[in-house]
Amino acid sequence: MVLGGVVSGSAEILAARIDPIRQNFGGVADPFAAWMTSLGLRTLAVRIERHVATAAVLARLLEDHPRIVRVFYPKPGELPAGQLAAGGPMLSFEVDGGEVEALAVIDRLSLITLAPTLGTLDTLVQHPYTMSHSVLPEATRLEMGIAPGILRVSAGLEDPGDLIEDLSRALS
Questions:
Q1: Torsion angle of the four alpha carbons 150, 152, 158, 160, in this order, in degrees rounded to the nearest 10
Q2: Beta carbons of 129 and 152 less than 8 angstroms apart
Q3: Is 114 helix (H, G, I), strand (E, B) or coil?
Q4: Type and span of the H or E element at 165
Q5: Is 165 within 8 Å of 99 (Cβ atoms)?
Q6: Structure confidence at residue 127 as a pLDDT band (50, 70, 90)
Q7: Would you say 116 and 88 are in contact if contact means Cβ atoms under 8 Å apart?
Q8: What's the rounded Cα separation, in Å, for the pair 73 and 115?
């Protein structure tokens, strides 16, 4: 797998923030990574369609679940004009019971995998309160809306029915 992207911004921001990183890690992909990126672009649209469709299915399941406080995923028509037509492959939801229950849900998952980074072909979950945002003071996390019971999911390419079964079992 290869990860690529584009960084854009003002010359001042790029010079201050990006140039030091580029100088240490390089700014050009090696030939194999470039070939892998080119190869992956051929199926990107199909993969993104599947990621988004699966995330929407999971969001609908979670909206009606009694153990879920709230779901963070836009419904059709909720996005501002000019934004994506769909909600994307990422969703978050808050489990009733806070951190203890959120971590228990993760422990009961078997198909969905706990991971520190998101965005692969597999469906991944993370607990932002104790992972990606753990370095921030608790007051800052709460002010940002990062509650102890929130889980973040990156929907993968697995069968949505299998993911629904895994999540439903983990929440029961």
A1: 50
A2: no
A3: strand
A4: helix 160-171
A5: no
A6: very high
A7: no
A8: 20
Q: What percent of the chain has pLDDT over 90?
A: 59
Helices 98-108 + 160-171 axis angle, to 10: 130
pLDDT interval class at 94 (50, 70, 90)? very high
pLDDT at 25: 75
In angstroms, how far is CA 66 from the centroid of its own chain? 23
For the residues 72-100, what does the mean pLDDT come to? 81
The distance from CA 57 to its chain's CA centroid, rounded to whole angstroms, is: 15
Q: CA 66, 56, 43, 22 torsion: positive or negative? A: negative
Tokens 């879920």 -> residue: 68
H/E element holding 99? helix 98-108
CB 77 within 8 A of CB 88: no
Task: Compute the distance between CA of residue 142 and CA of residue 129 in angstroms, rounded to an integer.
Answer: 9
pLDDT in tens, 37-55: 888 889 989 998 999 999 9
Tokens of 115: 């991971």
